[in-house]
User: Fold these one by one.
Assistant:
Number 1:
Amino acid sequence: MTLLFRRTWDAGALRAAHPPRFTDANKQAVVAVGEGPWSGTVTVSRYGPAPLPAAIPAAAPAWEVASGHFTYGDGDAGFTTWHLNFADPELFFAYGGRLFAQDEVQATEHPALGSVREALLAEGLAARTTSVEGPTPVLVSGVERRIEVDTAPSLENIGGLYGNRFAAAPRAKVVAATTALRPPPVSNILAIAAPVGGVGAYTRAQLRAVLVTAYSGFAAAGAESPSPVEVRTGFWGCGAFGGNRTVMVALQLLAARLAGVARLRFYAFDAAGARDAEAGAAELASLLSRASTPDALLDALAARAHRWGVSDGN
């Protein structure tokens, strides 16, 4: 793979030189709950797109479907754990404003991600997860998760805090839903942007773009990891970007296999999501019974004529 750049900062110095800019009042309030000195070392790297392997390996990653939302922390012993950021092509572009979908939740809970964006822009580096050549995954390691915001829909009278509800919620409610994490656990973040804007059945080119993006990101995680890789993910590209759940699960599993990921842990939110996740895994298993190369598998998947969904508005 082609490493486009790597930068490393002392976390405290990063904050002092490039403080995150939270402009939404509710985000300012929840970030204040986790106020305190930043510690450790933050490293960001950006890679170019990776060419797909010629053949599909026999070895598959361990596959786990978990309920609920991401769990963070230092990961399991023996693995280097990466959490997917469901990125926009502009890295963390909405971290400070009113939006509160997966990308923005993660950047609010890990405020150093905002500082990473500010530092890259100040240096004139591309704070982007795509280029004219294709996907350019961005990886940030050693970033503290300073707060946890409970976005669950069970929150009284406000229907949860996810998406557009966050900025409109009463200040007291968002603060009450926020817990300071002390000491802050450290996360590794993998930012990749799913294709967006499809209508009707997926074209083969669209399916290939999904696969190349996921594979490039997972391969970059392997290049940045001193031990076997675990990727924690979910319905990447299936919210605001309108992706098809079956397609996005199947192609993430294939990408993990191609990249030699040791374990893929999939957070499915609820029972319905778990069924969708297993349907995606079953789709890939069916395709693998008749295809031994990525090209042949993409041909077979395109023939299934899976259709794009619609944006959820978040």
Number 2:
Amino acid sequence: MPHSIKFFLLITLLFLAVNAGYSQGCCSGGTPLSGNLDIAANPSKTLSVRLIYDNNKLQDLLVQTKELEDKTRTRLSNSVLLRLNYALNKRIALTTLFSYSNQIENVDFLNFSSSSQGVGLGDIVFFVQYNFINSNKTGLSTALGIKAPTGKIDRINEETNLLLPPDLQPGTGALDYLFSSQYARKNIADKNFDLHAGLTYRLTAPAERFNNQQIYEFGNEFQFFTGLSKSFYIKKSILAPQLTLRYRHTDFDKTNEIKTANTGGHWTYLSLSSSYTHSSKVSFFIQGSFPLYRNLDGVQLTTSYRITTSVSYSFSFKENLEVIDAF
């Protein structure tokens, strides 16, 4: 790419950063709600509490599939999520997902530097899960839900006193609809090898900004994943390393029903992870995700790597209910 074009792109990004209150976001950051809609297969009358920490480093600047040798703009997105899942019975479970995000974006170009930060409680997700198959070897489940617009969308840049772009806000301001489906098969090819696959879809809606003078809508989002895990039994504990391939696609965003430049695209990630479960109650999880292929619309800052960790604890109410029923 000629140096003149690179220089033009850098000046354009600089202009967008300075005028963050009026420009639209072009990053694949934000609170990772869709990526945490995996379906849990918990025993009946069990409450599972999961605390998730997500660290997303965005430092790769791409023009479609071409990565530019430019590090003048970086973003660090830290999110904390609390997920509550309660299995009513063998078929039906209810899940709620709370979120908190802290996103910091820095621009350092020539003699100019700026920093923007979007912090706060994010949107809340509610969904109902139905298990079509829930046996010892096979699981097939689906879930329907909504994302309620509880997160703030009016955070400002303290340096410029202008409204932050939509993708730096803790919330989206819109009521979205969610669909998720998941398949799992245990003991394939070899004993203790498990196959897992699933997909999620988020149907977005528009939200009003700038005192109802602008309508912004994030693009619909589709994700698909598939992978293998191997279980190792250590007394009453299970160690399960996993290899997962994940594909993500988002449509372009819209501003006042017009396509927003530098939004939307295709991402493919490779995830290496491991879970450790002790006595079927406590579980720990860590995952690192790295990009394999990206084809983005226009110029976008996107993920260099992502680290996710979580800890879960399950409470069983079945024994207590059996005691009550006995009286």
